[in-house]
């Protein structure tokens, strides 16, 4: 029996990139308790790989529309063409335009 495996830890930015969502979404999931994390040195947030895995398993119940909404928000935010306070509204309108379903339903 060998030594125990050392778990990897990621920054919110790394997890956001891995899940193709905005870093703000990761921080919101942490605040909502959906994603376990801890602070290093009082400031740096680190997320255990097992927490990311658990979230992915749980997200299998998330609809494709939810994931599309998060990806659209990321694109709108990354381009910088849409004011930050309008990203959520515009992203929701895009989802409705393509799916015919209101995300708030």
Overview of the molecule:
The chain has 105 residues and is mainly α. The protein folds into two domains: 8-61, Orthogonal Bundle (Arc Repressor Mutant, subunit A), CATH 1.10.10; 62-105, no CATH class. It is built from five helices and three strands. It has a three-stranded antiparallel beta sheet with strand order 1-3-2. Helix 4 (64-79) packs across helix 5. The termini are far apart. The model has no long low-confidence stretch (mean pLDDT 82).
State the gist of this model:
The protein is mostly helical and 105 residues long. It has two domains: 54 residues, Arc Repressor Mutant, subunit A; 44 residues, no CATH class. It contains five helices and three strands, in the order βααββααα.
Summary tags:
105 residues; 3-stranded antiparallel beta sheet; mainly alpha; Arc Repressor Mutant, subunit A
Order of strands in the sheet with most strands: 1-3-2
Tally of separate helices: 5
User: Compute the gyration radius: what is it?
Assistant: 16 Å
The N- and C-terminal alpha carbons lie at a distance of 52 Å
Set out the fold topology.
Elements: E1 9-10, H1 12-19, H2 23-31, E2 38-40, E3 44-48, H3 49-59, H4 64-79, H5 87-99
Antiparallel strand pairs: 1-3, 2-3
Helix pairs in contact: 1-2, 4-5
